[in-house]
Design goal:
19 helices; 7-stranded parallel β-sheet; alpha/beta; disordered N terminus; globular; about 500 residues
């Protein structure tokens, strides 16, 4: 929704910075206009020199040529920028440059997935699996198992089919199909799988679960809209492959399957079931789904919420701003719901779309029946409302590491209560509070670790070596000696080849 007065009061953008940004935008637009005029004039003059007619006759041609040239240049520039952004995601992050130690996670001992193919988001994801000691310390209960964490990156296999096959093999290797819970997370544009969502299920299930993520892109979501179709296709392939594998097992030996998606991941996972309604999820073996911050452009969402379809059972679906709205339902209503969308009234991502430029949205209807966070005085203005909502997209995504909120596009504070209620864990209030506190502390520490160890000399590998040297000098000396011999041998071979 549009910014409230309190949002403006706590905005971090100063007046001077706003003026500077405005001047930069205006200057850039003026420069583009001048360049287009120059190209148009030169092309029309050149055409008039060799072809019948004056400069005025050939100005339309000049405009076409200038527009085409500028679009081509812009496309090439965008491709180069996208390539640089993706390269950063695939580069080694010093803070997490060592494979995990546990066979239950991808990249660990015995894994079929090479740790270095996971990209930045994948490496972070597998390193956040909570070991039984942590689960027990937070919940006060004995852990049932070490959580399974499977991740397959874009570089883990060359094609979609091979990545899906690799993920299934990795799930089988880790014993994921023998766990009580299996959560399929469709990531955001960079390949980010929500650590808090994974951790929530790990704590609530006492480790008796498996989380799996498959990457389909390596760019931030705002510049990954062209990857939604790819994410949708891969998500459906993966869900179908898992369902086929589970159908080979007796019904009482199958895990409960949960689908989770955030923002672009919610859009991609929902649109994997376009035209199939809620029945498509049932047929695919999805027992539950929890989506947060679904963008307005989700076609499946529009179909199941707005259309009258024989394959849509609205009693299976719920849309909520907060856990209070869930609790306000009757016990029978809550008992039927299996697929949940958590969408904040003031989430700009959830209400933004191209249609705002030409048509008044539903959320700007009767002022007396609007959601509480939408000003009653707000009116729809062509183009202007579109631009305001576009700005809100950015503002809604501001989060503070380690401080969970249920506001705008930040849904971290919603995860524990909704997972507990929707999936039937019904954890006591004190347990939920402990889990939230643990996840917040974990996120804060992880953020600081990554920030503090961004250089090679301060990397995770360097930290491990320092600890080995302190605790076991003999082992450290033996390892260094072995590496030294290998280094000398490689040097000798290189020198020999040069001769």
């Amino acid at each position: 929704m549009l910014l409230q007065e309190q949002d403006l009061e706590r905005s971090e953008i100063s007046g001077a910075k706003s003026l500077g940004m405005g001047a930069a935008v205006a200057g850039g637009a003026a420069l583009v206009g001048a360049l287009e005029g120059t190209i148009t004039t030169r092309v029309s003059r050149l055409a008039a020199r060799f072809l019948p007619g004056g400069v005025t006759v050939w100005r339309p041609l000049g405009h076409l040529v200038s527009l085409g040239a500028m679009l081509s240049a812009g496309r090439l520039a965008a491709q180069r920028v996208f390539g640089m952004i993706e390269g950063q995601q695939f580069s080694v992050e010093p803070a997490i440059d060592v494979p995990p130690l546990y066979p239950e996670v991808s990249g660990g001992p015995g894994s079929l997935v090479d740790f270095h193919t996971l990209a930045k988001m994948g490496r972070r994801f597998v390193w956040t699996a909570r070991i039984p000691e942590i689960i027990e310390g937070v919940t006060g209960e004995e852990a049932k198992a070490m959580p399974i964490s499977v991740y397959v990156g874009l570089q883990s296999a060359p094609t979609e089919e091979e990545r899906v096959a690799l993920a299934i093999e990795e799930l089988e290797r880790t014993g994921a199909f023998d766990r009580s819970w299996l959560m399929i997370t469709i990531p955001t544009g960079t390949g980010y799988g929500n650590y808090a969502a994974a951790g929530t299920l790990e704590f609530l299930s006492l480790g008796d679960c498996a989380n799996v993520v498959m990457q389909y892109g390596a760019r931030p979501s705002p510049i990954s809209l062209d990857r939604v179709s790819e994410g949708r296709k891969q998500a459906r392939m993966f869900v179908d492959a898992i369902n086929a594998k589970l159908e080979e097992r007796p019904a009482d030996k199958r895990p409960t399957v949960v689908m989770f998606g955030e923002s672009l991941g919610a859009w991609s996972s929902q649109d994997a079931f376009i035209e199939q309604g809620t029945q498509g999820l049932l047929d695919a073996g999805i027992d539950y789904a929890i989506w947060i911050g679904t963008p307005m452009e989700s076609k499946w969402k529009e179909q199941v919420l707005r259309d009258v379809r024989s394959n849509v059972d609205r009693s299976l679906l719920g849309v909520f701003n907060d856990i209070g709205e869930w609790e306000a339902l009757s016990e029978d209503e809550r008992g039927r719901i299996r697929y949940v969308m958590i969408t904040h009234y003031n989430d700009g991502v959830a209400v933004f779309g191209p249609g705002l430029a030409v048509q008044a949205p539903e959320w700007l209807g009767d002022p007396e029946t609007r959601p509480p966070t939408v000003p009653k005085s707000q009116r729809w203005i062509p183009i202007t409302t579109f631009i305001q909502a576009l700005i809100d997209n950015k503002n809604a995504a501001r989060v503070v590491p380690g401080v969970f909120n249920a506001d705008g596009h930040d849904y971290r504070a919603d995860l524990v209560p909704f997972f507990s209620a929707v999936l039937g864990f019904n954890a006591p209030e004190e347990s939920q509070t402990a889990i939230v506190a643990a996840l917040e502390t974990e996120e804060s520490r992880r953020t600081k670790w990554i920030s503090d160890r961004g250089k090679v000399g301060e990397s995770m590998a360097a930290v491990i070596l320092d600890k080995v040297r302190e605790q076991d000098p003999d082992t450290f000396a033996a390892a260094v000696s072995a590496v030294e011999r290998d280094f000398v041998a490689e040097h000798d071979r290189a020198a020999s080849g040069a001769d």
